[in-house]
What does this fold into?
Amino acid sequence: MPAEFEFQARLFGALEDYIEANDSEFGSPRGEEQTSSGAVDIYLPSLVREGVAIEVKKASIDPHSIDVIKQGHRYARDKGISLFATANQNDVFLFRRTETSTSLTELERRHYDLRKMSLPDFIDEFLDDVVSIQQGEGEVFDFDELIISRLRSFHTSIYPIYENMISKTFDGDDDFQSLLVKWARENDYPHDYPDVEDTFRIAAQQYAYILMNRIVFYELVRGQNVETKSGLPMDPIYNGVTVEKLDEHLSNCFESIMEEIDYEAIFKDDSGFFKEIPEDEHTKRRLHTFTKSIEQEPLRDINSDVVGQIYQELIPTAERKELGQFYTPREIGQILARWAIDSTDDRFIDPCSGSGSITVEAYKQFDDLNGLSHQETIRRITAVDINKFPLHLTALNLATRNIHQPTNELFAYYEDFFHLDPDTKRRNSHRLGVGGTSNNTPDKGQAIGTFDATAANPPYVRQEHLYPNREMYRKHLKRFGPSSKSPYYDGNKQVDGRSDLYCYFITHVTQFLELGGKLAWIVPTKWMVADYGPSLQQFMYGHYKLEAVVGFRKRVFQDALVDTVLLMMERCDDIAERKNTETNFIRINEKMDPDDIIRVIDRGYNIPKESYLKIHSRPNYRTISVRQSYLMENVGDKLHHYINAPALYTAVLEDSRTVELSNIANITRGKKTGANPVFILDEDDVRSRNIEQEFTTPAIKSIKEVDGYEHAPSDAKKWMLDMHDYVEEVTSMSGIGDTSDTADRIKSSLRADGYDGVLSYIKWAEKQSSSSNKSLNTYDPWFNMGSLDSKKSPIVCPQAMDTHRLFIRTDSDVVASNRFLLVQPNAVNPDLLLGLLNSSLTKIIIESHGRITGGGAVNLSGSDLRTLRIIDPGQLSDEQKELVKNAFNRLVAGDEDARDDLDAVAIDILELDTTVDELQDIAETLKRTRREKGQQVETLVKELDDLEGHIDMSFEDDSGRQEGLSSFSG
It folds into this structure.
């Protein structure tokens, strides 16, 4: 079935199903409804009002083209109805005929994007709109809101035709193939089969966008009656020309706008490949129809703000990713540009501009500061991108900021940023709209120079994908440091060779910034946690005042900013000034106005003189302000908790009254048997085989066996086979020269001693497959695991914690499996340590310190538990120690209210800005957040932000974290 009829059948069936399932005033749809001038594809009758005619086309036909609208209009007129729709599988347009309409483009219209909605959802919205409009209650969208959808519809319908033609020409024309391969290499697109087929699509999409953009922009300028050099008006884009003459007419129009007003950056066609994109009669007719309809559209009446958004929002987010362009939310661009640009005297650079969303916000910031003309503002902005297509969009974005003033020149360079430096004069052939000089004309250019501000969203490319050209990204590091040395390239401050590409963008742009210049970039959070992070931190601390790091809760911008932060820095060569900077680590919890966020960023939180860190929490944001001197002295410490973790986690981590658990206890792993089916026995195994008690030791295999805070031998549900003492005794009594097999000797001795139960079990176990596991080769004999005493500890902790997040007392009488970690206190009373470990505060720390497994449990490795920070028992008074020990014993007895006493001691010792109830609510909310999924998580996170929304604390300089300074300090 052809695609056109397949979609028509799906739409027809969906309408039938909807009307049958819902109380609707519409009757069943009718297909191929005859009228005096033809047949309506789908006619939807109304039981109480007029019906609706729907004309359906295949995806390669724009449902907003004049011919299709005429067809739908004619059928509606024949049926005597006012509403009709035109549709393909991507777009649906609803039209209303009125008596005042003098042309088809003056029809009132509404658009539905089927790329973003299911057919049932579309039908529900569509029929509601139809009823509202017929009742005189609904409003059809105005053209300002429709223009982007109208252009997308045309683009979606025509680029597949170009794609097919590019594919055919590539296979049959060697010259064209060479041009495409060259273009693909320049833009890092695939150029060999089968991946080159993706390049055919990308080329078709870009070519269709550029051609459509030029047509629309030309008419936008013409509609605004911009003054020309000759004083003569510009020719209309269509002007009644024939299909055959359209190419020539468009070429003349584009030449004239460059001669009469300029706009070379938009209209100068210096791409040899795009010049050779094939056209046929089909594409020419489609362009002819499009130019005719665009000429009739009310572009002169379009709102100026909408003009500036057309090219910024035209490409859908999913398609941007295919074209290598990434979306920066408008509010984020505003924050970056407004923070970075202080004055109309500033010069601004975006070294990876993409389609110009951030660059446009820079323009707006200059405009808001007042005092500059359109062209003066343009001259203060430099954009760089390795791909010419996004620079074309940047040019359109900037030019449309003021249609009434010409854009005489743009400083937009299609070049790899790492091929640029501030001082070298650049070839004009790499500047958009200036290239294409003849062989007889020198290709003169000028140095890019230095800048006062930069805002950007650099590409995030992992280091393993930088080979074999990694040196190209690193060689600029030789410029930093004394002339005779290169500390950041290969010296004692070397930027880690494992760094991702965005790190090199930061280091490279640094040489373009004047002292006092501001950097405001979106970067991944990896620099705060990755192994290469310390070297980048060291570079930043050595060249910048790190003013702020800003993260966002997911609900603020959904997926657009996942695992990224805003990095706000100021270039500075005064080490004292850098050290005295207070760095604000900010988490935005709720949607806030960009100007309010900037005020939060710039606010001084007044860290007390004797302190180095201050926590300031409010429900809609949280700031942890840290002296940069402290960050410089502790380079190498993880920083992500300042953004992501609960405030109380940071409070514990930074407080000198807390210690790592490894400072007061030895941490080891429980017993790995190598063959659990043989060595771990349950009650039925022991009873049915009559295994003697002296050959078993009470054990815990899983946390599911534990009920409460204590596991004594009497609670055991599992036992481990323990042959060690017996084997030691038998082998010690063997005579010199006894060469018999140890296993045979032990079994013979068991038989002689009457231990028939365990002997029978060993003989049974020998026949099990697990008894031949390689891990048992170290045992002698294979059924002797050795002494289990080292795998007993007064405190055990499950490696994976979910609802049973407990530290358990065993009194060293039970052996734990390797699913547990063992805690052996050093000169600390076990009950005292157990009380501290089972407080709500420790639960909060574990939620942030551990790692979440696929099943939703918190997983603690041995390293995690060793570095877990808890209250230093030595900080407690004798009275508090007794209170904690008694409270833990009450927990063991089943009194959960005893936790209140544990939590009260924790709050008192650390002087936490919270209550017992709040502490427990935070712990419980963190657990529920970890276990829940979907939208419920955001609700819980909101509860957590509200719970912590009042916390204000500061920390003195004697923090335990400063005991050992990093080798990167100084």
Residues 459 and 614 are 33 Å apart (CA to CA). The two ends are 73 Å apart (CA to CA). Residues 436-442, 959-970 have pLDDT under 50 and may be disordered. The longest helix spans residues 143-172.
